[in-house]
Design brief:
The complex is a heterodimer of chains A (110) and B (116).
Chain A: E1 5-7, E2 10-14, E3 19-24, E4 31-37, E5 44-49, E6 55-58, E7 61-65, E8 71-76, E9 85-92, E10 98-100, E11 104-109
Parallel strand pairs in A: 2-11
Antiparallel strand pairs in A: 1-3, 3-8, 4-5, 4-9, 6-7, 7-8, 9-10, 9-11
Chain B: E1 5-7, E2 10-13, E3 19-24, E4 31-37, E5 44-50, E6 53-57, E7 65-68, E8 75-79, E9 88-95, E10 106-107, E11 111-115
Parallel strand pairs in B: 2-11
Antiparallel strand pairs in B: 1-3, 3-8, 4-5, 4-9, 5-6, 7-8, 9-10, 9-11
Classes of the chains: A mainly beta (110), B mainly beta (116).
């Protein structure tokens, strides 16, 4: 059983479209990270959110942490082919342990 | 700071052989994690260290797997008598002092293991 559920699992869109990826849990996390991973490489950190209700922007990417610190979303505006990859969320729980979602595989077609 | 490094990047071995992977974390980080990842899935937790102490091991980690972090710096993950089901990407991450948030993990590039 995944502690963090990500949706959708797969997303295939055209360049220029907007999209939102969700990361949900019934557990509270002290912080939550979003990563992007390309095939054959390790996950690369995009952002860490810590405060409930926090919104962070990274160019065309907007990250939100839920008020109760149980869920998060990633919104991409005007997606580009370079955004293609596996997007992972990870929550920091007790005792410095991290819990990963199963990922959202994004394909942006030119 | 050079980030987390892992060696080798790729390993191909025959079933029954032993393999060892190395991870060098970010130097100020006191916590080090090992994960296993299969294609298209999120990383699965294997074990983690705080300094040289191994604090938790997943039930996924059979007796054939052992990890060490003898001086609280680099770590090794050994798999004995490899099986085809061990084929996966093995990821190392570190966290702790020195980052923007002590809760944030930083990953290495991974070691891709293929067991024939």
């Amino acid at each position: 059983t995944q502690l963090l559920e990500q949706s959708p699992q797969f997303l295939s869109i055209q360049e220029g479209e907007n999209l939102t990826v969700y990361c949900n849990s019934s557990s509270v996390f002290s912080s939550l990270q979003w990563y992007r991973q390309e095939p054959g490489e390790g996950p690369v950190l995009l952002v860490t959110v810590v405060t409930g209700g926090e919104v962070k922007k990274l160019k065309r990417l907007t990250f939100q942490f839920g008020d109760a610190r149980k869920d998060s979303s990633l919104h991409i505006t005007a997606a580009q082919p370079g955004d293609t990859g596996l997007y992972l969320c990870a929550g920091a729980g007790n005792f410095n342990k991290f819990y990963f979602g199963s990922g959202t595989k994004l394909n942006v077609k030119p | 700071d050079t980030g987390v490094s892992q060696d080798p990047r790729h390993k191909i071995t025959k079933r029954g052989q032993n393999v060892t992977f190395r991870c060098d974390p970010i130097s100020e980080h006191n916590r080090l994690y090992w994960y296993r990842q299969t294609l298209g899935q999120g990383p699965e937790f294997l074990t983690y260290f705080q300094n040289e102490a191994q604090l938790e091991k997943s039930r996924l980690l059979s007796d054939r797997f052992s990890a060490e972090r003898p001086k609280g710096s680099f770590s090794t993950l050994e798999i004995q008598r490899t099986e085809q089901g061990d084929s996966a990407m093995y990821l190392c991450a570190s966290s702790g002092r020195g980052g923007p948030s002590t809760d944030t993990q930083y990953f290495g590039p991974g070691t891709r293991l293929t067991v024939l």
